[in-house]
Every structure is written in structure tokens, then in C-alpha cells.
Amino acid sequence: MMRPQLVTMAIVVVMAALCGSSTGSVVEVPEVTQAPPSPPPPHNRKIQTRSRGNSFRGQAITTTTSPQKSENCHELMTSLNNRVSLLATLDGDQRHRLEVIDKKLDQLEDSSTARMESIKAQQFDFNTRLDSVEQVQKLSRETLEYIKGKTNRIFGLRRVRELKHKLNNRKKLNEHSRPTRGVSDPILDERLNALATLLTSTALSVRSVQIEVANLSRVIRRQNHFLQRTSHGPSAVQPPIFYGPSAVDGVHPNYPTLPTSCVYSNLATPGILKVKLTSDSESFYVSCEQDWTVILRRSSDDVNFERGWLDYREGFGNLAADFFIGLDKLHALTSSALHELRIVMEDFAGNDVDANYASFAIGSESELYPLTILGKFQENLTYSAGDSLSYHAGAKFSTVDNDNDNCLECNCAMKHKGAGWYSNCATSNSFGQYIPQDQNYAEAGETGMWWDTFRGAKYSLKKVRWMIRPIAEGLDALRR
User: What SS3 class is residue 337?
Assistant: First the structure.
């Protein structure tokens, strides 16, 4: 298709040619090449003179109208040139708009591609987690079936032995009772019934004692196993390094080496304990509350938690007050043994609530410290805070200078003024700003220290503590 300005230029050229030809025909007068005619008679001369006068007047009229047509053609050409310029400007604007539209389409395509890649990555991560959960369920079913089979065999054999033993006892009783049965059957039957009742109760008592002995033996074996696992150093006796209130009578129990967790310290009072996870690892201090290891404590605005990646990796604060233990130490603790998690919260009205999870562990720095394991939320608590952490399971840790959340258009750490395992973005914010009581803590927005299922996202809490405790084999029996 021809452009409009080309068509207009062609029209201008044609009009110019027409104007030029019309002007030339009007101005141009043909030359007389023949000899003059013979003088006419007088009468004819008057007529000829009148005719020539008319001819001269016609030429004069034609000559006067030619400049007017030329001026009209000039105005027409000027108008056409202006229209051509206007069309050229419109064409340039149209090309510019098309370029802008093409650029926006390219940006939209790039953004859509990035979103699709992110969705694919999330789907792959979800499939991986689903496969791992299915594998764990399969292993759990196999283990339960194995334990069930073993239990059935054990109790089946015991039941058979008990029945045989009862049958032998009855045979012996019958043999002893035959000589006297003819003398006094009612009295003998009553005595036999009483004896059978006594034997049954005695057997039940013996059975319960056997079960208790077996349980105690199992606990002792497991306790010895724990002591062997924790005794990595020399056999020299060394008490734990403990800073806090003194123990009973000022004496602490002796240990072959540094404990690996607060649960092995047997200290009933809060304090600071030095632990060593393995013989090759470096020892470090932790804050203990009974057998729980405190990894996060918030109770005032003395410590700023809006920090960068390096601070959260190494830890910061005061173990005797507000602090965070550090992602490196937390990874070392949760990778040395499977831990359970307890989160204790308090609002400014004095209400204390808990949120307990059956298991808890995080990954290494090369994985960006993801929340790899978060067990089932325990709903049977008397004062439960509700579950506002399961949403974050599997998410990577993010800080204000290291954004690892799944939000493409925001930085969740900056949005909530803290850090944490954000996933587009959060249902809790334990690492957020501390809002004191003299400020508007009840309407702090999502930048405070909040738990969505307890007082909502706009209410900034007064106190928060995160604590972990190892779940080792036989530990539940020791607690009972």
C-alpha cells in the first residue's frame, strides 16, 4: 500500500503541471506569419476596426485573468505542502507509538516468562516435597507393619505359654483333688475357685512387674547409649560450664565432656550453658530454660532485629536478654539431632500462649538456610496460639539485603522490617520491629512482632521466645 504522503505529492505534481499548462495557453499569443491583407473598403474597415477592438479587449481580459489563476495554483500547492507535512508528522508519531507498543509487548513477554519460570520452580519444589512426604509415609507404614508383626509374634508366643501353664496347673489341681472329691465337693469347689482367683491375680501382678522391669531395662540401655554417644572426649571427669543460678548445694553433676544440648545438663534452673556438638566442632554458649534451648528471645526494643545477612548468620544480642542464636549455630543444632519446636508468646494484656511443632530443622547456608523440616502442629494445648508457621515451611531465609522470598514485586523483609522464612510474604513475623507499650502496638501494621492466629497481623506482641529440644530415642520415656 502506498503511503499517503506519496499519493499527495503525486497530486501536487499533476496540479502543478496543469497549472503551468493552463497559464502558458492563456498568456501565449500566436505569431502572424502571412502578409497583411489588402485594405478593405471603408465600410468593412469600420467593422474590422470594431472586431479588432473586441479582439484586443478579449486578449486584455485573458491577460488579466492569468495571474489570478497562477496565484490560486500557488495557494493550492502551499495548502497541499502543508497537508503533506502534517501527514508526515502523523506518520512519524504513529511509528513512534508502534515502537513503544512493541517495547511494552517485549517487556510483558519477559515478565510472563519470568513468572512462568518461578511457577515451574515452585511446582518442582512442591513435587519434591510431596515425593519426600510419600516416601516418609511409606517408610512409616513399613515400620509399623514390622513392629506390629513383631508384637503379634511376641505376644502370641507369650499367650500360648500362659495357656499351657494354666492348663498344667489345672491338671495338677485336678489330680490333687480327686481323692477327696467324694468327701465334700462344695467346700472343695469353693477353695479351688478361691485358689484360681489368687493364681490369676498373682499372674497379673507378676505380668505387670515384668513389664515395668522390661521398661526400666530398656530405659537404662538407652540412657547408656546416650552417654556413650555424648562421651566423645577423654574419660576425665569435667563439670559443665554453667553460668546462672547455682545448683542445689552448689554442686553440679559431673560429665565426661561438654553436653550437646540443654536436655543433657540436668539443670532445673535457667542459665547459660556451654555445649559441644561433636568432637571436631567448636563449642559455643546457649541459653537454657530447663531442658529447652532458647534460640530467640524478644522482650524489649533494646536490640534492633532489622539487620543484614551476616548478622543473622553469626547471631547477635545478649544471651541473658534479647538475642538470636544465629543461623549457623541453629543449623548445627538441628542437624545434629531431630528437634521439636516450642514458641511462647505474650500480649500486653498478660495472656500467655504456646505454639508447638513436633519437629524442626533448617538447612545450610549454601541452601540459604531453608526451613526444611516443620512437623505437625500440636493442637491439644490448653492455651494455643494457633498455627501461623506452617505456611513458611520450605521457605528460604530472607533479610533486608538478601531477598530469597517468592515475591517477584516486593522484598518481604523490607515490607515487614525484619527477617525470616518469608514465602510471598508471611503469616507471622517474630523477627519484626518491637513496638513498646507507650506506642500504638495494637495498630502497628505488619511491621511489628505478630502472629496471625493470635491477636492478628496488626497487633505487635509483648514477648516472644523460640525454644528447641532434641527428640532422641528413649527421651520420651526418660521424661515420663
Answer: coil
425 prior amide bond cis, ω within 30: yes
pLDDT at res. 400? 93
Task: Give the cell for residue 374.
Answer: 516443620
Is the four-CA dihedral 427, 433, 434, 437 of positive or negative sign? Answer: negative
> Cα 231–236–239 angle (5° rounding)?
80
- Give one word for 119, left, alpha or beta, with left for phi > 0 and alpha for psi -120 to 50: alpha
Class of the CATH-defined domain 291-479: alpha beta
Report the C-alpha gap between 150 and 409 in whole angstroms. Answer: 56
> What does the pLDDT look like over 42-61, one tens digit per residue?
555 444 544 445 454 444 44
User: What angle do the packed helices 42-177 and 4-27 form, to 10 degrees?
Assistant: 180
Query: What ranges do the domains of the chain cover?
Result: 1-21+59-92, 291-479
Mean pLDDT over residues 318-339, rounded? Answer: 93
Distances (CA, A) of 54 to 41, 51, 58: 20, 5, 6
Write out the three cell numbers for 38. Answer: 489588402
430 three-class SS: coil
In tens, the pLDDT along 117-132 reads 889 999 998 988 888 8
Q: What stretches of 231-348 show up as alpha helix (H) in DSSP?
A: 309-314, 327-336
**Which amino acid would we find at residue 389?**
L
Phi, psi of 399 (to 5 degrees): -125, 180
Q: Phi first, then psi: what are they for 293, rounded to 5°? A: -100, 120
